[in-house]
C-alpha cells in the first residue's frame, strides 16, 4: 500500500482534523480504504456560505452527518455550524440536533448566525439553545430572546457571546444570560432592543477580555457599568449611553463614539479617568467626530468638559485629520482632558503618496503650532514643544508637555 | 538518572539501523518517550529507538536542537517549524510523522500533520491520488456511487482530467 494510506489511524485523524469539512469528506473517494476514514475525525464544521448546493441539501447534509456520527457511535468533540439563510424550519432542526450533540458528548459547539440581511424576520430562539451545555461560542442575529427562557441556562462553557439586533422581551433576561456564563471572554452587544442596563461585574465575569457595545438606532438609551479589571478591549459606539467604570490593569484598546460635543468630551474624560492607571492608546474615528458638533472657534472650557478631573496621560492619540472644519477647537477639547505623548494622524481618503502625506502632515503640524499660540490658555501654558517624527511611510507628532499635574500610570511616568 | 553536575547531560540514541547519535538531554526530552525513559532511570547507556531509522533520527535531532534553542516565543518557534519542514518531500514527512508519533512529540506531530493537510487542501481526488501514489481500487460504478453520496464536495476544487 502507499505511504499515506498506510499511516496509523490516529495520524490520519490528526491530518483530517485540520481539513475543512469539504476536503475531509472528499477523501472518501480516494480508494476503498479511505471510504470511511473521514468520519473518524472528531470535528464537524458546516457553513452554508461555502456549501455547494441549495439550502435544503445543506440542512440534510448536516442532519445526515450528525445522524451518522450518532448511529455509528463515532467520537465527536467539536461541532461548528454557521448559517446565513435562517428560517423557521432550520431553527426547528436545532430542537433535534442539540440533544443529539449532548448525547454524543460534544465539548465544543459553536453556533453562528452572522448574516446581516436586515429584512429577515425576527425568529424566536428555541429554548433548546439555552440548554446546550457544550456551547462555546454563540453568535445570534435578529432573534427574539426570552419569550420562554428556561429557569436554568446552561452556558457553562460559553466563551464568546455576540448578540446583534436581538429583542429582549423581558427585563432581566439579559442579566439571567450573563449570570450563567462564568467563562465568558468576549461579549459583543449590537442594537439590542429592550436592553436598558448592562452590568459587568468582576465576580461574575472573571475572564472577560473584550467588550463591544453598539447602539446607534435604539433611542431609549442604555446605561453601562463596568467593573472588570481583566478587560483588554472596550468599544462603545453610539448614542445615549451612560457609562461608569472602575480601574483596569490590562486595557489596551478603547474606542468611543458619541454625539454632542460637551457630553462627548465629558464621557471621554470620565472614561479616561477610570482608566488612568492603564497604558492608554486612544483612537478617534471619523464617524465620531462627524457627530460631534464643535462650533468653530468655540473654546471648550476645561472644567466643564473634564468634570473636574485632571487631564490623563495617553501614550498615543490617533485621529482622522483633514476633514474637520473646527479642528483646532476639537483638538483643544482633547488636550483639556488628555495629554498624549504622540499624535498619529490617519488619512480618511488614503492611500496617498508619501509626498502628499508629508504635505498634509505639515499643514496638520502648523495647525497645532498655530493653536498653541492662539488656543486656550491651558494649551498655551502646558504644551511645551512638538516635533514631527517620520518613519518609513508613517508619520507622527511627538508632543512634550510641561505640566506634571496630570493623571498618569506609573509605567509611563518612568519612561 | 544523570548525576546533578554542572555540565549538561548528553544522551546517546541508537536508530534501528544501528547509527548512534549524541544529543543534549534538555533537547531530547522534547520526546515524551525519551523523557519517560530518563525519568525511569533507563537512560544510563544507549537508548535504542527501534522504530526510527538513522536518516529520520538525524532529522528529528536537528529539529530537537533547533526548537529547544528558541526561548519561549510561540511565533519564532512556529516560523522555525515552517522553515524546517518547507523543503521536505512527502516520503520524508511520512517518516517524520511516524517517528514523532513513536517518540511522542506532539509539537512535531502537529506541524507535520498540518503540512500534509495543507498539501491536500482544495485539491481534486485525482491530484491527491497522484501526489501520494494512492491506487484507486474502486470500480467505476462504486466510485460514482461514493461521489454521488458526497456530491457537494466536488465543486470548486482545483480541476484536473481524471477528477
Can you give a write-up of this model?
The complex is a heterodimer of chains A (415) and B (163). With 415 residues, chain A is an alpha/beta fold. Among the domains of chain A are: 1-41, Monooxygenase; 272-285 and 292-415, no CATH class. Chain A contains 14 helices and 20 strands. In chain A, the strands form 3 sheets. A 14-stranded mixed β-sheet of chain A has the order 1-2-3-5-7-9-11-13-15-16-17-18-20-19. Chain A has a 3-stranded parallel β-sheet with strand order 4-6-8, with no helix packed on it. In chain A, 34% of the residues are buried. Chain B is mostly helical. Chain B has 2 domains: 10-120, Potassium Channel Kv1.1, Chain A; 125-154, no CATH class. Chain B is 53% helix and 8% strand. Chain B is elongated, with a radius of gyration of 21 Å. The mean pLDDT of chain B is 88. The chains are: A alpha/beta (415), B mainly alpha (163).
